[in-house]
Amino acid sequence: MNVFQLVQDRFRQAIVKIDGVEQNAPAPLARSSRPEFGEYQFNGAMALAKMLKSNPRQIATQIVELVNLDDVAESLDIAGPGFINVKLKPEWLSEQVAASLTSESLGVEKEQAKTVVVDLSSPNLAKEMHVGHLRSTIIGDAVANVIEFLGHKVIRQNHMGDWGTQFGMLIAHLQDKLQASEVATTALSDLEDFYRQAKIRFDEEEGFADRARQYVVKLQGGDPECETLWKKFIDVSIQHSEEVYEKLNVNLKRSDIMGESAYNPMLPGVVADLKEQGIVVEDQGAQVVFLEELANKDGEPAVYIVEKSGGGYLYSTTDLAAMKYRSFDLNADRIIIFTDARQAFHFKQAELVGRKGGLIKDETSYEHGPFGMMLGQDGKPFKTRTGGTIKLVDLLDESVERAGKLLAERDSDLSAEEQQEVARKVGIGAIKYADLSKNRTTDYIFNWDTMLSFEGDTAPYLQYAYTRIKSIFRKSGVDAESLNADLKITEAQEKALAVKLLQFNEAILTVSVNSTPHVLCSYLYELSSSFMSFYEACPMLKEGVAEDVKLSRLAISLLTAKTLKKGLDLLGIETMERM
Ligand code: ARG
User: Which of 28, 280, 291, 322 is least crowded, fewest Cβ atoms below 10 Å from its Cβ?
Assistant: First the structure.
């Protein structure tokens, strides 16, 4: 149930009945900041009064008379200049909580299915996955999961960087290693190292650079030997990424990979399309599109190169081919691409070129989801102590190890093996949540202590809140699956929790529309906090609590646990029964 939408619709139906108000007049609704004012506030009376040249409080009174919220609200109060505060009815809330409990989607309404392409992760295969790709992987994964949960068809596209001139040098180096009877997986066990060695040879070794360049040409020309070497390289590198995906618990399969190389055959066609539209011109031997719309401050148009002088295509050409493929072949209604913010201008240009060149249907929306950088304690880009790039696998392993140490300091009746499993979920969850809970567009500082803390807005806190409810159930002796309670909401904290639970739908919707997982994180944190207050104020297992009260409160707790689990699951964070 989308409560916000429901209340807003009722207000919309009311205001259009007022003389002089248009059918599509805005119906501004907000969530109340303080529970004593109720849960929602309608703010439209002031604007309407201005438009109708009337008194806002009078208009508000008229709206209150017209609006039909009898089933939902226990009171509608006019405050200040003409705000209308809506207080939801406990009986209605009880019914909704009960309905959510029995619904598979926990009360979230499915939307009319659209096809959404999500471009995520997309590491460069020449090197090891580093922390920059943590964000594109987990933010993309969370958004894809949420959109899918709303009933849409999501097509994940891992636009891996598996093509480009550096592969000439890499496969030449690989060939030598293989000839020295090394197997590919061993030679490529450390990609960073491998890349470094190849680069040194490229810069210093006589003849190597020429050979590398030849290999690039051969590879592009489809030479079978080079292709075999390239495939070997790509294959091992993909396995490295898959190891990270597995650890990270993200939903990415091999079949989601549509690397840059896959677009190769389409590139000449894309340039031809642009030529046909007459938007491409030759500039210093290269084929370019000038974009007056994106001129710099000196009035010089932006230049989008689609073919290099002397031939050869670029990252930018590939993105046009991807756009065309996604819009026309995959029939995407929406394309969302997650990369760091430095590529924002690139995608702005790509969209403009694509729209002018007819490479994207008018009705396909093209969205770039930029994100900021992960910074070290010193506020500078995250590096090892010696200044090297941090491998993502190492970072994840360290987190699990740290979580294990912290958990060992706590009381626990778990076996060593179970503890290790909990440490894994907490360690990985902590890194992911610390990232996902920040508004993605800003940079953030990576901090082990805050992300692994059991207090505050962290994964361990949410995971702990979940196990807490699970433990209440174990103690209660009530079977959650067969719980059949008559829900009765009476206490203020109980009401607050019920309202929070019903706002799950609103949070999910916001994440889907704006591609902002942090909204779901904040929601889950508020939900947990709301549960903790409820738990303090509304005893369940204490002596003297009537059976029906106990069962009703257990039912609300159960929906809380299910919502927490579902929410964390959508974020790609695992839960456990005990901690
Ligand atoms: N491989 C690129 C990088 O690491 C990201 C690719 C994102 N997707 C795209 N369609 N350009 O920066």
Answer: 28
State whether residue 249 is helix, strand or coil. coil
Q: Whose CA is nearest to atom 9 of ligand 1?
A: 159
Please tell me if the domain spanning 3-88 has the same topology as the one spanning 392-570: no
User: 300 CB contacts (<8 Å, ≥6 apart)?
Assistant: none
Q: Write the single-letter amino acid at 282.
A: E
| CA 480 to ligand 1 center in whole angstroms | 45
Instruction: Ligand 1 pocket test: pick from 117, 121, 122 the residue with the most ligand atoms within 8 Å of its Cβ.
Output: 122
Round to whole Å and give the CA distance between 537 and 509. 31
Paired strand residues for 286: 283
Read off the pTM.
0.95
| Architecture in CATH for domain 392-570 | Orthogonal Bundle (1.10)
- Asked if residue 39 lies in contact with residue 88, where contact means CB atoms within 8 angstroms, the answer is yes
CA angle, residues 58, 63, 69, in degrees to nearest 5: 145
Euclidean distance between CA atoms 529 and 21, whole angstroms: 42
* Domain boundaries of the chain, sorted by first residue: 3-88, 166-253, 392-570
What value does the mean pLDDT take over residues 75-99?
A: 96
Show the 3-state SS of 522-567: HHHHHHHHHHHHHHHHCCCCCCCCCHHHHHHHHHHHHHHHHHHHHH
How many degrees, rounded to 5, is the angle at CA 169 between CA 166 and CA 175? 135
Q: How far is the CA of 195 from the centre of ligand 1 (A)?
A: 19
d(CA 499, CA 399): 35
Strands 115-119 vs 153-157: parallel, antiparallel or unpaired: parallel
In short, whether 319's Cβ falls inside 6 Å of ligand 1 is yes
Query: Looking at domain 3-88, which CATH architecture does it have?
Result: 2-Layer Sandwich (3.30)
Strands 29-31 and 73-79: unpaired
Contact 563, 527 (CB under 8 A): yes
Determine if ligand 1 sits within 6 Å of the CB of residue 124: yes
254-273 pLDDT tens trace: 999 999 999 999 999 999 99
Tell me which amino acid residue 573 is: I
Q: What value does the mean pLDDT take over residues 281-310?
A: 95
**Burial of 564 from C-beta contacts in 10 A (0-12 / 13-18 / 19+):** buried
The residue-averaged pLDDT of 376-386 equals 85
Which phi and psi (to 5°) does residue 178 adopt?
-65, -35
Give the CB-side neighbour count of residue 9, counting CA atoms within 13 A. Answer: 6
Please give the structure tokens belonging to residue 108: 């979230």
Q: Which of 159, 261, 320, 353 to mutate to test the pocket of ligand 1 (most atoms within 8 A of CB)?
A: 159
Contact 47, 84 (CB under 8 A): no
Rounded to a whole number of angstroms, the CA Rg of the chain reads: 28
- Residues 412/380, Cβ–Cβ less than 8 Å: no
**Which spans in 53-151 are helix H?**
56-66, 90-102, 132-149
